[in-house]
Amino acid sequence: MRPVSFAAVALLALPLAVACGTPISTSQATPPPPARVAPAASATASGLPPELKGPEYTENDFVESDRNRDPFRSFLVQQQPANKEALNQRKVELAQYSIDELKLIAIVQGSDQARAMFLDPSGKGTVVYKGTFICRPEVVHIGGSNGPEYQLNWRVDRIREGDVVLIREDPAQPAIPPATRVIPLHPDADKEAQLTPG
């Protein structure tokens, strides 16, 4: 049997296609360009509703307020109280008591470093050295109620034979001299000496 070529099969199928009424073109013609129609006319012609315009935004629409909350900000952060306590970054002895609640009960000198002992209202004694920060801090606000705040603490400046000298410096106000407080070892004896005429 002879092999049949593709060209021979195509020539045999050609009269059959013409007889069925299927037009066969030998050249490829480009289709005509579509007619340009207005968008509204094409939307109504195709049965679709006309396009709606979106809202126009201004710069004020993106400013955060009570009515316009930032979706990426945590709601828990907004619920924190505005008057948060200033953090103290130094070790402070007896930080829960004011200086008037403490009583100086002992001073030890003659060793390598002088030290003093304060008694708190609960009856516990705490030993301090020169440079120790003690007592409840004073909170200082800068720039009004919404400004930052920092703490000022009393610091043991000197331990002498009969008293302890405390100072409180404000680093933000270097021109103002530090506050000084002298805590006597025997305050009752000092009062009696002042009352006794000499």
Question: Can you put this structure into words, describing what you see?
Answer:
This protein has 198 residues and is an alpha+beta fold. Helices cover 18% and strands 25% of the residues. The protein has four helices and eight strands. It has helices at 6-20, 39-46, 75-78, 187-195, and strands spanning 92-93, 103-108, 115-119, 125-129, 133-141, 149-159, 163-168, 179-184. The strands form two sheets. A five-stranded mixed sheet has the order 1-5-6-7-8, with no helix packed on it. A three-stranded antiparallel sheet has the order 2-3-4, with no helix packed on it. A hairpin with a 5-residue loop joins strand 3 and strand 4. It is elongated, with a radius of gyration of 46 Å. The N and C termini lie far apart (152 Å).
Principal-axes geometry comes out as: elongated
What is the typical, i.e. mean, pLDDT?
A: 76
Q: State the end-to-end CA separation.
A: 152 Å
Structural class: alpha+beta
Number of strand elements: 8
Instruction: Specify the helix fraction band.
Output: 10-25%
Brief rundown of the structure:
With 198 residues, the chain is of the alpha+beta class. It is built from four helices and eight strands; from the N terminus they run αααββββββββα. A hairpin with a 5-residue loop joins β3 and β4 (125-129).
